[in-house]
Amino acid sequence: MHESGNKPPGMVPARGRYMVKDLARLASYYQIPLKWNDNVIAAMFNKRTVDTQRLLIAVALDSTDTSLSQSDRPESVVSAPPGSLLETVARNLWLRIWSTGEDITTTDSHRVVLQTSSPEKSSEWADSVLQKASSTVVKDLLKSNTKAALDLGAFGLPTFDVQVGGESHMVFGSDRFHIIADLVGEQYHGPLNELSTFQK
Predict the structure, then answer these.
(1) Going along 56-173, which residue ranges are E strands?
(2) How much is the pLDDT for 69?
(3) Would you say residue 3 lies in a domain?
(4) What phi and psi values does residue 179 have, to the nearest 5 degrees?
(5) What CATH number has the domain bearing residue 138?
């Protein structure tokens, strides 16, 4: 967001007030346990989440190929299959900041998330992922991902790069799934709340 010149919604007072109410409505509608809390504000305005972003890349690398080096790494790490460890770690980070109001920016919180996300793995594994998160390979990949997003025209989240017939279509917003479906020639049947893993 910073690199694109955009400002967080909360920096515009009227938009910030609206966003708090709108998020509550969206959480109720989509059955998501989202609760506005002080850690959200702290993470957005006072702390840096760059280490958290690096953690996600380290998890993606660990899940695909632990021997990736500077010379043979992929240009970017942008996705993982449903049910992957990357998805689980990302979801648990989201739950900490948006649902339980816990920190997501420190090494200690990253270690807790790793151990919660993959309890069958050792503490040594968690330490190795944390170490990888501070490596040059991971730092360069985050820079590469950020540049790719800016080159696409991204200015905030969520931004989707929908590839259709060799053509790239940038789509912004969590309320654009019907547009994405249309681009890929599918029907969008709306939120399937009955399938939510966050059933009330």
Answers:
(1) 159-164, 167-172
(2) 42
(3) no
(4) -70, -45
(5) 3.40.30.10
In a domain, 1, yes or no: no
Q: Whole-angstrom Cα distance, residue 43 to residue 89?
A: 17
pLDDT digits (tens, 9 = 90+) for 118-168: 999 999 999 999 999 999 999 999 999 999 899 999 998 899 999 999 999
pTM as predicted: 0.82
- Domain coverage including residue 125: 9-157
Lowest-confidence region among 20-34, 89-103, 168-182: 20-34
Residue with the bigger pLDDT between 71 and 35: it is 35
Token pair for 123: 């503490």
**Which of the two residues, 33 and 39, has the higher pLDDT score?**
33
- DSSP character string of the chain: -TTTT---GGGSHHHHHHHHHHHHHHHHHHT------HHHHIIIIIS--HHHHHHHHHHHHHHH-TT--TTT--S------TT-HHHHHHHHHHHIIIII----SSHHHHHHHHHHH-TTS-HHHHHHHHHHHTSHHHHHHHHHHHHHHHHHT--SSSEEEEEETTEEEEEE-TT-HHHHHHHTT-------GGG-TT--
